[in-house]
Amino acid sequence: MEKITFAGLEINKINIVALLFSKSMLLAYVLLVCAFIGIYEVFDLRYFSAAANAHASGLNPTDPALKEAMRLAVFGDVGEVNRNIPWTLFIANYMYMIYTGSGIIFLVALAELMNFHLVARAAAGFMVAGLAMVFAGLFTIATDLNMLNMLWMLLTPNMGAGMWMMLPLYCIYIPFVLFEIYLILTNKREWAKRLALPILVLSIGVDLIEYFIQAKLFSMNTARHLWTEFPALMFYFIISAFVSSLGIMGINSFLVHRNKPEYDALMDLIRRAMLFFVSVLGLYEIYGYMAVDKDWSFLILFGPFRPLYFGGYIFLTLALPFLFIVKAGKPIFTLIASVCVVVGGFAGRYLFVYGGNANPMSNRFGMGYEKYDFYALPKSFNYVAPHLGEILIVVGSVGVCIIVYKLFDALFSVGELREHH
User: Fold this and answer.
1) Is 327 exposed, middle or buried (0-12, 13-18, 19+ CB in 10 A)?
2) CA distance 319 to 317
3) Is the per-residue pLDDT at 60 higher than 80?
4) Cβ atoms < 10 Å from Cβ of 129
5) E strand residue ranges, 26-165
């Protein structure tokens, strides 16, 4: 393929029409259409709710539910964090994408420092996949904030708000990762290795600051049992993210490297790393549910979330992958395990976001647990299933991943295995 060299970087001369209408991009467009339909649905729900209409106002203008619906319609707070409304699917997907993407970048940078030459040869593709997931996470949270809220945040900046803590982080982190990819693509391996350590620190920094932002948001709530009591929750997020990250790396290896001589060795390396982190995560689960509030444990283990916890999370993230990777075998077993942990990892993040709000009660006054309501009679189990608009936006965020990776690969051939000099 004919190339153009710029600043030492070889850029492929590509056919724009062929790129834009390739199978991968067409799939991404379909997913993005889903996202835009979801954005319309959520916008309509937030600002044009049918609950706040003239008929309802005439029947009972002092109805508290009507006043609350009108407040939500005016200020656009549907889906935001408060004591009554659980966090949304946006938050679950944002956290999953950000933690998994930064986890991939962390693991690749660690492999560089530890001289895993095979991973270093595939580092460009893996890092672009991680960066694509970070962009997908930011896309999801941007749709949650929506343009009107973001405009208001810019016009009346509150530097202590979550968005203003995220902006500096990603304005530093993303350029660092892009520069690391540039060093790899231009075969400046020594400089890439030197930059790997700051990348490691920044990747963990992303997780720590994200966790701090979430903790800051929790301070406005008195009791989100899973979030506030689960032991060493920060480490749980990191360990579970590493499992999902290795799953994405396994899928990426199959799609990109399956016809290359080093494919078997690369998949076996991913298998061994996944076996380690799946084992650590399993031990953490046992310890966690022994230490967390027993009422909440019973809610997850024996309540309405039981099918998702055992079927979607324990089975897919821990049990089934362990059976496939406990012994060395064909790469297809590692691929199956990779798909399982990617799906199961999302189920786990969903459980923490929604399940952590499912029992939002406190005993602040020593009179027993308070009960909050959501436009209904007070109840102890507070759960609202995701809106269709949220589901479509989350599905559409996968299209963002595909477009980012495909553009990088078309221009710079990031999927190639590069010699480690």
Assistant:
1) exposed
2) 7
3) no
4) 28
5) none
